[in-house]
Amino acid sequence: MLLVFGEIDARVHIYLQYEKNNKKISMGRFIDATVEKYGETIRRLKGDGFAVCVHGLPPAARKNFESNLPFLGSPEQRSEISREFNIKLGEFCRKSGVAFIDMQSIAADDNGFMKKEYAADEVHLNSKVVPFARDRIVEAFGGRKNFTKTLNHTTKR
Fold it and tell me: Cα torsion at 26, 90, 1, 118 (round to 10°)?
């Protein structure tokens, strides 16, 4: 099972909770709590016998977003949240024996923003990341032969 987490988790939900709590709870605690909740699901899926791979957050966009939400964070704040979240999610996966695809490792610049050559638009990655992601997914599920076998088995469930 491939789990894909989006940058919106960092862009909206974590920063929103941080501000709603008047910054009394550290951003790190919100990130840790979110990773722990995701971790519960990952552990449950593994316990149910699924082969699990986690696709980490893509890099943050430089775009300033408009929203009806009261707090959104600057691009720099969102970049920092995304990076920290991705690091902690990756650490959780490594400790739990779950394959982790670190999209930021190829698609983020030194400031944690999406590199222009990987941008499809202002917020989404383009197809240049597909070979990297595909190769990591295939590796996570034991190579092409095992991946096809696993895929055929799970579609029959």
Answer: 100
